[in-house]
Amino acid sequence: MELTDILKALINGLVYGSVYAIIAQGYYITFITTKTLNFGQGDFVMLGSLIGLSTFITITATGGSVWIAFIASLLLVIVILGICGWGLEQVAIRPLKSWHSIGWILSTVAVSMIVRNVAMLIWGRDVLMAPSPFGRAILDLGIMKIRYHDIFVLVSAVVIMLLLYVFLKKSLFGKALEAVAFNRDAASLMGINPRLMASIAFIIAGILAGVGGVLVGPMVHPGAFIGLFLGLKAFAVAIIGGIENPRGIFIGGLLLGVLENLFTLYSTSMKEAAAFFLILVILAVLPQGLFGKRVKEKF
Amino acid sequence: MIKAKWWIYQIGIPLVLLYAFPWFFNNAHTIHVAQTFLITYIVIVGLNLLVGLSNQLSLGHVGFYAIGAYASAILTMKVGLNFFASILISALIAAVFGAIVALLSLRAKGPYLAMVTIAFGELVSIIANRWVDVTGGPAGIKTSVPSLFGFELGPIQYMWFIGLLAIIFTAGATNIFRGRFGRTFTAFGNSEVASEVLGINVRKWKILAFSVSAFLAGVGGGLFAFQNQFISSTTFELNLSIMFLIAVIIGGSGTKIGPIIGTVVIIGLPQFLHNFVDYHLMIFGGILLIALILLPDGIVGALTKLSFFKKFSSKKVNTELGILHDDREATIDLPDGISGKLLELQNISMHFGGLKAIDDVEIEVLGGTVHGIIGPNGSGKSTTVNVLSGVYMPSGGNLLWKGKNITKYAPHGIAQEGITRTFQNLQLFEDMSVLQNVMVGFHRHFKTGFLKNLLYLGQVSNEERYYAQKAYDLLRIVGLEERAYEKASDLPYGEQRLVEIARGLALKPDLLILDEPAAGASPKEIEKIMDVIQRLKNAGLSIILVEHHMDIVMNICDYITVLDFGKKICEGTPETIQNDPRVIEAYLGGEEVNQLVAGTKFVG
Fold first, then answer.
1. Fewer beta carbons below 10 Å: N end or C end of chain B?
2. How many whole angstroms separate alpha carbon B88 and alpha carbon B84?
3. B126, B248, B355: best mutation site toward chain A, by most A Cβ within 10 Å?
């Protein structure tokens, strides 16, 4: 049936798009505070999904309940990826002397190579199967079937976005982050430590990547080499939405996810090509992304 | 003399090394690695022009590489062209795509620019992967054995052939580096707006930089297609673009020998690491990270910082240009003065959203005068300068230059008309010497084209020497001749302002706009700057002077316009302005302010 196919593509797109959006929020946070971002964010997502997978399997194999296993793996991933984010800032961002963008692009790529290699040594070169806490349960709506995991991902994504929003807008930390984003020097005169804020931003970005990984794991087949593809998608989303606009990024994520899946209906082989073509068109017309601010430079 | 040396180092020695190579390392594997090295090196030379000189970023070079490879494979196999002809045609096709990518990314900056180039590279690699009928996809397609004039080239001959091309392209790139093209690339890479107001059409030059770079990547791809007589889409992935970029940065971006070192690293390292294939990525990533932290300017950049090399390189610049310093006084070369109306602002407005930064302003600038524009902070002075120089397009009104409407002109167009400016927030080309900064100012007077510069004909070196001497003379006028070979960013603030003035003079302008030339300068430096402006005035140059320092304005200006809150509040000679109550009110606050200060009146 034509209509259910479209509906299915729509929902699929929203689910994938919301995961891209969560990962891409990590780009936003570090970019506004440090004007840098982790080009290896995708490999952090990969690491999150694999750590989550191993924890989940270990606990369920020893007889732990599915939900305890899930929560434990989520917590472990949050802790480890938070540390990874902090470490990345320490080794690849802070010590760089040149502030030219190529420097941090390559230094974060370097870290991602190391991460990928470590993951390959631990989990091997092949892709794995990641079980969802919902198993393979499916919600039958009559006209179409949806996996519970997909619904869970969509709901989680919205909750994470809201939490992030509240954290950034209402908490003192969030306000400090925004102050640094607005004017680093002035913020530092007000007693805010920009370096601490940079660390916090990268910790949050790491956590977002990890959580994204745990959510996306059962949807893709995680393996040491999936990072590049996920990171690229998330980066595309951040750019389409406008990297300094968190709501734009969320909308951009959903948009890319949906469009991609609609393209799939037309032709699977050209789906990816269409996405990148779209990006080129958008950026040629709106060089700051769909929802980015246009700033007039002053001379 | 210099010519002979150039031929020896640039052509002779590399040729000998290339020819002798198979005698020392004659095994199939080494020859294959040498081919790969040379092919990659050609790509890196091109990327270095783009990244190192013009400060652009490309994470999509694999796209041009793939286009070169597939186009030449198709041209030989399906059209039946000779392999070399098809490589050249494919490289031109790649160059066209380079121009397209440049056009798409003209306004994109930082991560956005990265995304444009990534998207292009990915698009090409997806098409290579999926358009199986043409590209063969991951299973690949066969190409022919390369042959020239009926002779099939074996591995060693093919290596010689690639090497010959590499030597030729290196020579071309070196020529580009040292002439006006390299200087212009570096200039807009340092400051786009400063390049524009000196008459450089940055859009055109960016397209050129991308095209040249893509051309070389296309040549590399074409050569690669015949290396194994087989290509498959699995080669052309984002990782390769990243590798190319790594080579440029580790080698030392913007340096002449950086590409060689960088290519040695990315091609050589895997050779040494092939026993540790499981740890390959980790070792590579670790080395990259350490290199970026410890050697931010790359290996060559770090070496040139050593005092031994520094001495060597600065001496070379000096003698090569053969600049004379004689005792006669340097004269200012200016166009003939024009009396009467030079520039008219008719009802000019500039709105940012709801803010009227300047509102319905009318100013007439007469030829041969120094016209001051003053006003308190936020009165619209800087906006006026930005409108006058074409940096902002006014929201309303007309700009007439010698009666001609130039309202819609881009900054480089306005510069071509003979108007240039300096910047309140300095916009020097920081990677260049003081002398080179000034030489960029001569942009619109240079005549030699790309091909002549590629070959560095005698005409080109004559032109270089002529304008180097002129630039030096301009530096004598502002009193900076002893600083000529220092890096512009190493000079004190006040002297940097003088460099900007000299650079503007190089354009041979009819009108020079000085945007707060004394801001941030020490009293002694201000004296020097004032003296320079006074001498320019005496020489008959028309100047618009935007300034805070009242003594400068009142002493030098013939006529003054006062702005407040974006509106013109009065104009006249310095004497009229000094006694105008509106000006005093704008600067010191009126009666109301006095009452507030005295506490006899309260707000609200």
1. C
2. 6
3. B126
Helices (H) and strands (E) in chain A, counts: 11, 2
Q: Domain of A79?
A: 2-285
- String of DSSP letters for A253-288: HHHHHHHHHHHHHH-STTHHHHHHHHHHHHHHH-TT
Is the pLDDT at B264 greater than 90? The verdict is yes
Is A292 inside any structural domain? no
What are the residue ranges spanned by the domains of chain B?
A: 2-237, 341-598
Give me B553's structure tokens: 């304005």
Tally of CA atoms within 13 A in the half-sphere of A237 that contains its CB: 37
- Using DSSP, state whether B228 is helix, strand or coil: coil
Residue of A nearest to B237 (CA): A228
A161-210: per-residue pLDDT in tens? Answer: 999 999 888 898 888 888 888 888 888 898 888 889 999 999 999 999 99
Nearest to A236 among B115, B288, B292 (CB): B115
Element holding B351 (H helix, E strand): strand B341-352
3-state secondary structure of A50: helix
Mean local confidence (pLDDT), A81-100: 89
Residue A190 in any domain: the answer is yes
B354 CB within 8 Å of a chain A CB: no
- Above 90 in pLDDT, residue A18? yes
**Do the Cβ atoms of B424 and B515 come closer than 8 Å?**
yes
Sign of CA dihedral B283, B286, B292, B293: negative
Number of structural domains (chain A) is 1
Cβ-based neighbour number of residue B340 at 10 Å: 10
ipTM of the complex as predicted:
0.92
- Mean pLDDT for chain A overall: 90
Q: How many residues does chain A have?
A: 299
Strands B230-231 and B559-564 come out as unpaired
Comparing alpha-carbon positions, the chain A residue that sits nearest to B194 is A299
- Choosing among A276, A294, A298, which should be mutated to test the B contact, i.e. which has the most B CBs within 10 A? A276
A36 backbone dihedrals φ, ψ, rounded to 5°: -130, 165
DSSP characters over B546-589: E-S-HHHHHHH-SEEEEEETTEEEEEE-HHHHHH-HHHHHHHH-
CA distance B444 to B526: 30
pTM: 0.91
Whether residue A294 lies inside any domain: the answer is: no
Tokens matching residue A157: 């994504």
| Residues of chain B by 3-state class (helix, strand, coil), percent to 5 | 65, 10, 25
Superfamily of segment(s) B341-598 = P-loop containing nucleotide triphosphate hydrolases (3.40.50.300)
Where are the alpha helices (H) located in B10-50, listed in sequence order? 13-24, 28-48
- Tokens representing residue A53 in the block: 């997978």
Q: Is residue A296 part of a domain?
A: no
